[in-house]
Amino acid sequence: MARLFPYKSISLLRVLAYHGIIIKLFVMTVKTDPAIIMRSGKKAVALGLVILVAPCGIMVGLGYFLLYTRDLHPDVVPDDSIIIIIALLLSTSSFLVVSEILEEIGLLNTELGRLAMLSSMINNAAGLFAFTIFTSINWEKPLQSIKPLGLAAAIILFTLFIFLPWMWWVVQRTPKSGPVAGGTMVAVMVVVSTAGIASDIGGTTFIFSPLLLGLAVPDGTPLGATIVEQIDTVVSELPNMGVYSVWLLASIGVTAPIVPLLKTYYDPLGANYSMGQRTIQHLKPNMELRVVACVQDESPVPSIIHLLEASCADGGNPLCVHVLHLVEQVGRASSSFIAHKNKKGFINPTQMDRLLNAFINFEQSKNGQVPVQPFTAIAPHRTMHRDICSLALEENAAFIIVPFMRDAGEHGEADRPNRTIIPNVLSQVSSA
Questions:
Q1: pLDDT tens track for 101-134
Q2: Can you tell me whether residue 241 is helix, strand or coil?
Q3: pLDDT by residue (tens digit) across 265-309?
Q4: Where does the Cation/H+ exchanger transmembrane domain start and stop, copy by copy (predicted)?
Q5: All domains of the chain in start order, with CATH
Q6: Helix or strand run (H / E) with residue 348
Q7: Which of 215, 236, 279, 340 is the most exposed place for a label (fewest CB within 10 A)?
Q8: pTM of this prediction?
Q9: What's CA 202's distance to the chain center, in Å?
Q10: Which helix (H) or strand (E) holds 320?
């Protein structure tokens, strides 16, 4: 051991590994939208806390039972705090791993997938918060806990009043489709590494700073997506020395029985759906025609509005339009489905973009005779059809408009993922 791995090299590898973990945790939380956690329903909050408290309580109880009822060798008897720390770590799920599993099996933007993601985020946040507080407090000498708790408060203030405004300043100065300055990326990595080292030296766990700073970075384009793209690849290998194979086998062992069970017993669109009977020819006379119009960019908007204009018969069947803005999930871990108009017809203008505003202007030009319901779906390309079909089923739509992306021009390859949406929607209809 001493010849193969000298002490100096082991120390260097450990420093690199811990540094990789700091950056990895930062990138992981960059993919998280804190607003999603704040909007979590009671079901997700309750489920997230139950899957933290129940296994943690069982493991702590079992740990103390073995500690005080078995004649253990003195060298293997752990401290009481170690039992609780291990229980907290094993009871906390990684929402990033949950997200990758759900995306792999195509359930990320389904009702079950969103519930799993929200409950996992609640579990992750509560578990890491409890872990940070527990490791920062010296239970034998409480007065010595003032330093780490004060440092944690200082890091929180730095994040809220310095780091967060800096991130928004970078976003405002970066073009929507332009690159983030290389100096900014270097500065972000330096700040994250320094904060992680400072929190570790001050007695607070080193995972506290990167998690908090990552939540302060706006997810998605341009900043969040750039951080995920440029930094994640660099640090993905650093925290994996000596443990990658173990974690890989553990992940396979946990997920292997779950995937076939989900595909066999869970239908994302419901067991009794029937899209085949929801067509224009099945509408009764004077029945409202409900249309789901999907857009990804500005190019098809005029054509769709002209089609809707031609479908507005004076004194004929009423028309209702559900506009769905499809956005590729980039630089974030969870999918989202946002309804911009509530039941009372109120629209929050801060969440609207130019694509949806064009259809709202069409509604106003018709003096409210053609109601428009705007939605935004953020999901991977290969599962976007789930949001389209789910919205059509929920709103009892008889007609779905999906723009066709032609394989031509300089953007032919870039549009290839978009063109898979149509056959996926058609296959869902044919399977009904």
A1: 777 777 777 778 888 888 888 888 888 788 877 7
A2: coil
A3: 776 666 555 555 667 777 777 778 889 999 988 888 999 999 888
A4: 11-254
A5: 7-265 (no CATH), 280-431 (3.40.50)
A6: none
A7: 279
A8: 0.60
A9: 31
A10: strand 319-328
